[in-house]
Automatic annotation (TrEMBL):
Key words of the record: Cobalamin biosynthesis, Methyltransferase, S-adenosyl-L-methionine, Transferase
Family: Belongs to the precorrin methyltransferase family.
Domain Tetrapyrrole methylase stretches: 2-208
Protein name: Precorrin-4/cobalt-precorrin-4 C11-methyltransferase
Record InterPro entries: 4pyrrol_Mease, 4pyrrol_Methylase_sf, 4pyrrole_Mease_sub1, 4pyrrole_Mease_sub2, Cbl_synth_CobM/CibF, Siro_Cobalamin_biosynth
GO molecular function: precorrin-4 C11-methyltransferase activity
CDD domains tied to this protein: Precorrin-4_C11-MT (cd11641)
GO biological process, alphabetically ordered: cobalamin biosynthetic process; methylation
Signal sequence coordinates: none
Pfam families documented for this protein: TP_methylase
Keyword Methyltransferase among record annotations: yes
Length: 257
């Protein structure tokens, strides 16, 4: 018996990987986070499977279901939004599984920041503009952040930020980031990426809070911050395709003419 932690992607059922779809289709028990994972994602569960929305359940309650399945020798598909390695709350589940001697596997999924960039039609690592992305969150009412992992510290790098669970903290985000990025720094708030009602709100650190307030968005949003999100056309092209830059698969430089 195996528990499969499956990344379902941000919402679009077509972003489910072939492996994830196959495993869900083979498991007689399927537990999914219904507040973040559409029911359509787990519609491929086999006929007669136990399919449960864990949104109203506690960790101990979901683990009890897994233990019962383990006793019956049934595999379990534990379906999470995005990629389970990012804010998937799987570490505490794995700790319980290990304590009970229950086998598990992790199947990665498309993270929200990647799906958002795709929907926006842009690269997040443009040469000489941005080459790093910080995936972080704000505390608010959730678990506190480790010492040193503060927006202030990340802001000093001026790299692209992908801020999770922070749409209710936009005033604080604006206050902390503006001295480092500037009030005119581009910001995108990506709401329910991959769902039919997805929305992308573009603005700057100076005005994004009011724009989000006007749309009455209070949850299920990712905040992207950084110069790379602006209209950039004069960036340096990557050396990867530069004919004057040989590499292992193109060992000789070429000269166009």
């Amino acid at each position: 018996m195996t528990v499969y932690f499956i990344g379902a992607g941000p919402g679009d059922p077509e972003l489910l990987t072939k492996k994830a779809e196959r495993v869900i289709g083979e498991c007689p028990v399927c537990l999914y986070a219904g507040s973040l994972v559409p029911a359509e994602v787990v519609a491929c569960a086999p006929k007669g499977a136990l399919v449960m929305d864990t949104a109203p359940m506690t960790l101990d309650e979901t683990h009890a279901v897994i233990r019962e399945a383990h006793g019956k020798g049934q595999d379990v598909a534990r379906v999470h939004s995005g990629d389970p390695s990012l804010y998937g709350a799987i570490a505490e589940q794995i700790r319980r599984l290990r304590a009970d001697g229950i086998d598990y596997r992790i199947i990665p999924g498309v993270p929200a920041y990647a799906a958002a960039a795709a929907a926006l039609g842009q690269e997040l690592t443009v040469p000489e503009v941005a080459q790093s992305i910080v995936l972080t969150r704000v505390s608010m009412k959730s678990t506190s952040m480790p010492d040193g992992e503060t927006l202030e510290n990340f802001a000093r790098t001026r790299t692209t930020l992908a801020i999770h669970l922070g749409v209710r903290a936009l005033r604080e985000i604006e206050r902390v980031l503006t001295p480092h990025y500037g009030a005119d720094c581009p910001v995108v708030v990506a709401y329910r990426v991959g769902w039919p009602d997805q929305m992308f709100i573009r603005g700057t650190l100076a005005d994004i809070r009011l724009k989000v307030r006007d749309e009455k968005i209070t949850r299920t949003a990712l905040i992207l911050v950084g110069p790379v999100l602006g209209e950039i056309s004069d960036f340096t092209e990557s050396a990867l395709y530069d004919p004057a830059q040989p590499h292992v698969l193109r060992p000789k430089a070429t000269v166009s003419g």
